[in-house]
Structures are given as C-alpha cells and as structure tokens.
Amino acid sequence: MAEDSLRMGGLSSGLAVLLNGEDSKEGSSKSRLVSYCDDFGHQSVERTLEYIFGIPNRSIGSISGQIDSSLVRTIIKNECSEFYSDSSLNLRNKDGIYIADNGHGPHIIGLEESSICGDIRIVRPPLLVESLAIFSSFRANACLWKGKWMYEVILETSGIQQLGWTTLSCPFTDHKGVGDADDSYAFDGKRVRKWNKEAEPYGQSWVVGDVIGCCIDLDQNEIMFYRNGVSLGVAFHGIRKMGRGYGYYPAISLSQGERCELNFGSRPFKYPVEGYLPLQSPPLINTFAVQLFRCLSRLLDMHNVYQAEHSSFEKLRRLKRFVSFEDLFLPVAHGICEEFFSVLEEDIQSIEYIAWGPFLSFLMEVHGMQAPDDYSSLDRILDVLLEFQGSNALFEHIINALSCGCKTAKLVLTECPCSGSYPYLALACHILRREELMVLWWKSTDFELLFEGFLSQKCPNKQDLESIMPSVWWPGSCEDMSHESSMMLMTTALSEAVSKIEEKHRDLCRFVIQFIPPVLPPQLPGSVFRTFLQNLILKNRGADRNVPPPGVSSNSVLVSLYTVLLHFLSEGFGMGDICSWLKRCENGPDVGFLHRGGEQSYPIGLFLKNDPPRTDISRLGGSFSHLSKLHPVNDREDEVVRWEEGCMDDQETRVTHLSTQKPCCCSSYDADFARSLKNPITYTTKGSRSHCGPLSERSAHVAAECSAGSLNDEIADKPSSSDQSESEFGYRPLQQTRFVSRESNMSSATLREEELLDVLLLLYHIGLAPNFKQASYYMSHQSQSISLLEEVDKQIRERACSEQLKRLKEARNNYREEVIDCVRHCAWYRISLFSRWKQRGMYATCIWTVQLLLILSKVDLVFLYVPEFYLESLVDCFHVLRKGDPPFVPSSIFIKQGLASFVTFVVTHFNDPRISSAELRDLLLQSISVLVQYKEYLAAFESNEAATQKMPKALLSAFDNRSWIPVTNILLRLCKGSGFGSSKHGESSLSSVVFQRLLRDACINDEGLFSAFLNRLFNTLSWTMTEFSVSVREMQEKYQVLDFHQKKCSVIFDLSCNLTRVLEFCTREIPQAFLRGTDTNLRRLTELIVFILNHITSAADAEFFDLSLRRQGQSLEKVSRGMILAPLVGIILNLLDASENMEFTEHNDVVAIFASMDCPSRVHCGFQLLLDYNWDGSFRGDSYLTKLTLLEDFLALLVSRSESEQVFQMGYEEETDVNDCICCICYACEADARFVPCSHMSCYGCITRHMLNCHRCFFCNATVLEVVRIDEKTS
C-alpha cells in the first residue's frame, strides 16, 4: 500500500539510505527509504515520525525535547485528527432502513423477540442461535425498503436452514417459515433449493463453516446469495416493492438442532459484497483505528529493516548523524496505544468491531500470513499492548475472532501449505503462550466453545474439491497424462497443509494440558483438559443417533480432537515427562503409550464410576442404572487391572512390542511398505475394491445385502440358541493378570493416558466412524463407476448406430462426472484420514483395545460395565484398516503380526449372552463372515486355538431366527469345494479342511445340538424357497420386473442356494443323521428336495426366471437354475453313496422314502430336470457324467418303486376302510403314538416332526408332557 513506503517527494532536502533487505531478492516492493539527516544537520527524528504517521514531509517541526508518549499523542491529535473526523462516513442516518430499539441500543440489530416461533436459544451473544424445537423461525428488528443491503450467516451446522428475507405478512408456524409464503424468500443449502412458496433448485450444497451472504437489492428488486464470497446467482427477480416501514426483514428458519451465527454488521463481514451495505453501521472510530494500526505497522516495518541492516546503521551511528531506532520504538508505540485505548474507552460498544476488524488484520499482518512467522515483531507489540488495562477486553474478542476464523477458513491450493485455519491457529498458539492471555481465555464463559472453534476444520463440498483439485486422474483413465503429475502435486500440497494444521492443533492442546489454572486448591497439569473432555462427552451424548440432539459438537471438532489424542498416544506428547505420564519402560521414555511393551494396566474405575458424562452410555451388559442395581461394584472403583502384553495370545503366534518379531505398527516392514507406495492414487482403481480379492463374490454380496434387520425380520420366531452359560466364554486362564488398588490419590487426580484412550475410542465412535463409512462409500462407488465407464467406452467402440451412439455418449459423460467426483472425494479422504502415522496409531489402538477386552471378559462383573463403543470402535477400526486405501500392510500379515487377538475375541464372544445387545453380537458375527471369505484371513482362523475349539459349536448354536444369514455365509465358506459342481471355479483348492473336520466332529459328538441346527436349517430353507416362489409369481402376474422385486428375488435365491449347499455338506459329512434311526430327518429332507424342485419347475419359464434374478453386470452362470439344482444333485448322490457303504447296511431306504411322496409324477419330472440340465458350465471335463449315470439309475429305480407303492397303497386303502387306526395327519401310517395327557393319537413320525418346533397337541393345543408309543399288542 502507498502508506507503507516513504515517498521520494518527502525526502527532497535530505540524504536517503535505500534499505533493500531480504524482500528485494524476491522482487518485492517493500524497499524502504529512510531519511536520517537534512541539509542543516538536524536529526531526522521528525522525518521518521512523519513517515510513521503517514503525514506530509516537514509537517512536524524541530523536536528539541525527549521523545515520549505524550509527544506522540500530541502529534496524533494535531496531525491525524482528520482520521477521526473522517469517520464521517456515518451510515447511521442511512435512508431506506428502520431499526427498532430492542433494548440493546438504538442502532443495534438483533432478534425481534415477538416474531419468534418455536424455541430459539442464544448459545453465545450476540447472535449465535440454535433451534430447540422441530422448526423455529424469527425476524430481525430491521426493516428495509430502499437500497442494497446484506447480512452474513456463519453455519455452525449444515442441516435444514432457510435463510433470507420476509415481510410482516409472512406467518411463522411449526411447519412454515421463511420462504413458505408470498413476499418471503429463502435459500436452503441442505436441500439445495430456493423457496418462495414453492421450492426450486438453486445454489450449492453447504457445509459447516460456510459463510452465506444474504443480499437484497431493492433498487433492482432482486435477491441473491453468496457462499464464501462466491455468487450463487440471482435467486429471485421482480420482488414486490415496499413503502417506508413496510419493507423486508432479515429472517431465518431452523430445524431442530441447527445452529448458525448472524452478523448484521456488528463485526466486519468475512466476505463483503461490493455495493451492498451492512444493516448495522460500523463504529465512528473504525477509520481512526485503522490508521493507528497502520502507523504501528510502519513502525514495526522500520524495526525489521533496522534489524536486517543493523551493521549499516552502526556505521552511520559512528558518524553521530543517526538517532537509534530503539530510542523511538517504545515511546512511539506507547503513545499510539494510549491514544487508541483512550478513544476506545469513549465508545466501548465498538470494541467488538475494532477487534474483529482492524486489530485482527493488524496482528495477522505482523505475525505473517505465511510461514516463517514474525514472532519478534509480534512479541514486541504484545509487550506494549498488554501494559494497558483495556487490552483484556480487546484480546477476549481477538481469541473469539481467531476461533471463528478457524471454523470458516477454507483450504486454498495456491496458499498451501499454510492454508485453511493454519494462520489463525499459528497466531492463537503464539499469543496463548503468554500466561496472562491463557488465563484470560480460560476465565471466559465461552472457553470450551472457543476451544472447539480452534479444533474446527472446514470440510470441502463438491465445488470446493473442484477448486483445490482442478486436475483429476486415475489409472486407466483417458485423461491427459499431465493430470497425473498435477494431481500428485496437488495432493502432496494439500497433505502438507492438513499436516501443518494438525500440528498446530497439537500445540494448542499441549498448552491447555500444561496450563495450571490459578485456583485454590492448586490443580495439576491436565485438569483443564480433562474437564474439557468430560464436558465434551456430556455434550455429545446421543451424537451417534440418526437424529442427534441439539447442541452436539461439529464432526470436524471430534475428528480433530481424535487426531490429536491419537498422535499423543501413538507418537508421544513431545513435551517431556508431565507428572509421570511417560512411563519408563524397556522401549525408552519417548515411546508412545500404545507402542509400549511389557506390563499393561487400566483403571477399571473408568467403567464403574457413576460420573454424569458416562452414566448414559450403553454398556455391554445393559444400561448403567440397571447394572448398578443388579451388580453393584462400589468397592472396586479404585482397582487397576494389570497384565502382560500378549498374554491372551497363543504362545506360538504371540507377537508383542518386546518380542523379536514386532507388530505391524512397529515393524520395519511398515516403513518399507510405506516407501513402496510411490503413487497413492493408484489405489483408487478397480483393484482398490480389496487388496486381497474375495473368494466368493456371491457370499460377500449376500452378507452385505442381507445383514441384520433386512429379510430375516420377516422370519417366524424360532427358539433362540443363545443360551450358552457364561463359563463357556472364559477361554484362557488369567495367569498373568491381576487387580491391584490404585497407588495414591495423586495418581487418580492426574490426567492419565488411559483416560485419553477411553476418550479416543468414544471420539472414534461418534466422529470418525461416520467419516470412514462415507469414505468407504466413495471408494466403492468409484470402482463401480469406473467399471461402468469402461463398459460404455467398449460399447461406443463397437456400436455404429448414430442413435445408440448418442445415448451412449450421454451415459459416458454422466459416468465420467461420477468418477471424477469420486476420485476427488477419495483423494480428500486419503489426505485427511489415511495418512501413514494415523494408520499406525489405529492399528496399535486395535491391539490395545482387543487385549483389554479379552482381559476384562474373564471378569464377568467388570465386563458387563464396559461401554458398547469400545467394541464398536474396535471392530470398525479393524475393518477400516483392513480395507485401507492405500493398504496399511499386506493382508498376509495384517492379522498374523499383531491382531491374532482379534480373531480370538470375535469367535469367543459373537454368541456371548453377557453382551445384551443383539446388534453387537451380530457385528462380531458379521466380522467373522467377512474375514473367512479371504484366504489369508481364513488361515488366521485355522491357526487360532480359540477359533478351532469354540467356533464350530458356536456357529451351530447361533443359527437362529436372527443370525442365520451370516452363519450360513460362514458355513458356506468353510464347506467350500465339497459339493457337486463346485470344482468349475477351483473352489476345492480354497476349502478349509480343518473346519470341515471340526464341524463334522461337533455334529457327531453333540447330537442334540446338530438336531436343533438341522431342524432350523430345514425350516429356514423352506421359508426362503416359499418367499422366492411368491416373489416370482408376483412379478409374473404384473408382467413387469421392478428393481425392488428383482433385488428381493436375487437375494432370496442366493440365500436358498447357500442353505442348500450347507445341507449338502451335512449329507456328505454326517449321512448317519439321515440314514440311521427314525426316518424323520430323511423324510423331511426328501420333502424339501421335492418342494424345491416343484418351485423351480413351476416358478416361471427359463427366460423369465433368469430375468427376475439377473441384475446389471451379472453373468448368466451366477443366476442360472444350476446354482440350486447342483446341491440337490449332490444331496441325493451323498445319500446313495452312504447307503452303499458297509457301515450303513441297516439304514433307512432312500428310494422308498422318495417313492412314498405324493404326486409321484411331479417327483419324476423334477428328477428328469436334474438329468436334462446342461451341466457343462459347472464342471471341468466330463467327470460328472459318471455321477449323472448314478442319478439316472436312481430315477429308474424310483419309477419302478413308485409303481409298486401305488399298487400296494390301493390294497392298503381297501383294508383301512374298516380300520380307524390310520394317522389322520399323513394318512400313510398307522397311528402308533399318543400325546400325554390329552391322549390324542397320530403316527410317531408326524408327532416327532411336530415336536421339533412346538410342544402343544395339534388337535387340542394342550401342552404335551410326554409322547407314548402304542405297543402293537395294545393297538
């Protein structure tokens, strides 16, 4: 600026020295001309003061006395008085606006309380508001009818808010607000709509921290909105003109829990729009304050030049022709500040505007917007300012302004790496090094809100990502190859910017941790930080709900605080030994808490204490109030559990931080693997779907689409099998674990690392987990979009028809835009979430948490009190790392080298009755279902002692009306390769021989368990086939295939195929369950086979059958009838093979059972379908022909036996015409059993099948106590 440099005209009579400084090397215009002597030998102090105050040359006469603050103030009043009077830009008498007095002053704009509808809470004065009602609306107390005006809204939340303008004729109700009536106009960035009775698309989606400018032009009759200074275009044309006193009012409507801060002009606008005036005029002293701060800036500039060219000035001083700058700085600075504070005292209401405006700009300029920051100049000016009593109020507003700046600052690519909130954080961290300012901040009523503001980071939306990542590239793309290097440079620059912001977050938190508040009794370091964490937890109760309660923190605050704590616990605090935090251990004192080996400890009082922030948190055993009544633990709150790291792992597979082989987070392989990832962008291609491909896309697909609460909610209730005793879950004896009392009261008063770990897990649950879920969505959607784009490109190359080509090109443009958007989002999530040190810390957190949970699971009382978020955070964090993009470590060592305990935990507790939440048990079961789909992870299960000992029986028990889908997927994966037609895709090489043997042994050794499992398997398969048949019939009747019905059919068909495969495995491994003893199981199996064949043959013609199942991108072989016909063939062949085995010489007759079925012609038709089906696509070679020959022989024998059975039945019916002892249920057997006590009779086979699912008589509904066989003689 012109004022920042001396003019040549002002030095025409004096000798000048050109001081270039370092700035000249950069081509800067900051060279300074300093006069030090005139023609008559007078000292140049007058000329120096003229430069500092920006007044004409020789305006100041000769100064003979000492330079002091009084002299400086006199110069200001005499020479600079026009600045104060020039504030005559007095807009308080502006035409076109009327401000009603609301009790805060005649020219102060605020809420018009009489207009409030709903429930509006002022979170922080002056105008940070929040809606506590379902929908709240209000107007301001300013009416406009002429001119161009604006106000700004800073979004604290990003939900449904309607911001705009309205007249008095607009009614506010519980459902209608701004924009819902005539002469009422609003913009809503959540729904990206503008509102004037009806909604229309407009603008951009908004995010937390956005500054929305609401502008009204009553000269052109237009309303427009701005987002962060960027125009969204004219929203409304031709709005109605109003007369004096009947104009437009600023107004907003908020849905429940929404917060925003309004600025009508009490502070300088963040993004002023040229030509538009604030509703509230700036204070009179604003221009004067701006000039004073410019004077201080010039004074500091001269000081910097003096420091840079110190030797040159010393040479001039030896000639006694120069006055030392140091002799001028303090009196001049004091004089300027005295005048500033004296003027400020006369207009105390202007302090907020001055602090947020010229004073903040001055401090930012002195500190330096870019690194390296000018700490020396800032410290000098702070020393002077803090000598004045009025500086406290000024710095209160400065801290507030810096906190707000962190919330609204956006990343700008050209400013990286010192972009975003970094300048505000760097200045805040520096000024808060001063104890008096730290105390001032701590004493403010808004300390915690301001702290959250400092931890805020503005997340970019689609348009923001376009501005910071203009060039996009992904492997295999047809984009310009130069985009690859451009994107690499952009992501590197953004990563550095995010890293610098995170570093300042840590610095700020260190200051708070080290701060000792001036209170009695004295407190220890960390007490203020602990209080902040506790209040944050209390404030964010329910933040994980679908509709969070009002007042919860911004997600970016939770993420930033999590990142800070993760760095402290993983990488160390970096501030020495604070109250014995850093334990001395074999790894050394600087090793992070999560990476220390040897003895571990944890205070169980974190779970047991009745603290307000924690009592509402759900526990594994239920609610805290419920547990405290049933299982009081008041005498154990001070205990600490101690154990040796890795004590819960098998000795052979144990990996600890003290062992030779280190966990992945501390191994040398981690660093080597990180260096091998030369291009992180490469992990966004189709290969990023999984770094170790799934063995069965079908099973994974079913697991994802049929997770808890989808289709299985419709299943009829079945007896639950989650009835195992608690003793079954005590897997490993606690030989290396002990509980001890806390050492002293001092240790309990000190903020411990274990407390930070507890908060870390909660922050992950409510803050990080939703972000990782969103990242997973974009990564998955990117892979799908790339596949679709490649498919369209292929079709474009093959098609010649112009009409089709036009449609394909339109589709290609849409897919390309989706890919580009996904690539940008994925790149952002990698930058912000998946940095290397964060993955390392998350891996160590998983190790620590799972070992803690395993230890506590051995103590029933304590385990019940463990918060649910411990388990949820562990599982989610584990899978985030497993699917990391880029991957943290190869999947082959991901579990093996550090997380074997995770396998132990999930297999031990997925059916643990102490975990009261069925959703949590499902979460563990789903983890198993996902992991066993991958060869590397399945190997970890096979080598895990707990998995081999407990999982087979637990899986059979868990197959109930809630968990049957994931259990089926697990069993299917474990039994792969053993069925008919499964060798086509090499599944036999992927089978788990270990678990097949274990499952067989479990079924044989526990007949009761297997019998119950088989009964539920029969019932479930019967239900799925019925649902499938009904769904197909519905589509056939409507002559259309809807997406929903198609998806439902496909999912149910998949489930039916999987269940049939499991049943096939049972017939192969445990044929005696069907061939020995009563023929109940065999008869039910036979009926089920016939039932399925009937539904498959009668459901629809082949073309419609395939159409009802196949979805986009699926191949024919994945939706053919052979998927379910193959296991049916396998079941029959397994029974025939077992029947021929000498071990089963006395067995149930398979052919006879099939021959006894009703409608033998339908049975024969079904078997003929099995023979006629084209099995070439299911086998390699023609080895299957031999098996089909066996099936053909079986069908011939069945036809012959059926004919004989019909002849016999005719004769039997003649005999039974005079016999009343026939079973009235099946009409096939003699009634040879009766119920006790009701004495109703039926055949034993029908009664046995009925008793599997119901213990009431099917005649009179009486409770059955006993079933008695009737002796032949008695009958």
UniProtKB/TrEMBL annotation:
It catalyses: S-ubiquitinyl-[E2 ubiquitin-conjugating enzyme]-L-cysteine + [acceptor protein]-L-lysine = [E2 ubiquitin-conjugating enzyme]-L-cysteine + N(6)-ubiquitinyl-[acceptor protein]-L-lysine. SUPFAM superfamilies: Concanavalin A-like lectins/glucanases, RING/U-box. InterPro entries: B30.2/SPRY (IPR001870), B30.2/SPRY_sf (IPR043136), ConA-like_dom_sf (IPR013320), RKP_N (IPR045737), RNF123/RKP/RSPRY1 (IPR045129), SPRY_dom (IPR003877), SPRY_RNF123 (IPR035773), TPR_RNF123/RKP (IPR057987). It is an enzyme of class 2 (transferase). One of its GO terms (cellular component) is ubiquitin ligase complex. Its EC number is 2.3.2.27. Keywords: Metal-binding, Transferase, Ubl conjugation pathway, Zinc, Zinc-finger. Residues 1223-1257 form the RING-type domain. One of its GO terms (molecular function) is zinc ion binding. Residues 76-269 form the B30.2/SPRY domain. GO terms for biological process: protein ubiquitination; ubiquitin-dependent protein catabolic process. This is RING-type E3 ubiquitin transferase. It comes from Parasponia andersonii (Sponia andersonii).
